[in-house]
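FAQ: What does the model actually see?

It sees only this:
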Amino acid sequence: PGRFERARLETWQQGAARQRELVDASVASFDLWQSESETLREALQGLEADRDEKKNVAEDARAKLPKEEAPSVELQGLRGKVKKAEEVVASKQKELDALRASLAKLEGEEAAERQAKPVVVVEATGELPPPPAV
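And it is asked to produce this:
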């Protein structure tokens, strides 16, 4: 065989060897993943059993709770008082919002008024300063 044929054959052999290495690595990875998968499946079964047990305990505890009774007269009275207090708070909040709006309006008017009126400063000489240039 010629020089070029030997080089081609050597390249082919190197490529085939690399492919075998990749296959071996893939098989090893697959075995590892399969092993991990088995471990996870076993852990999942244990977790599911634990969940079912806790679910049963919770259901038993719920069943032992006293049945909810109709609200007592005292509780109904308290609910009425709370509702009235909430209504008072809501009306006071409306008043407060209205007062804040009025205050903001007055402050805006006052600021506009201050800008409209020039401030005259009388120096110690007692003379008025010259009027500002327009």
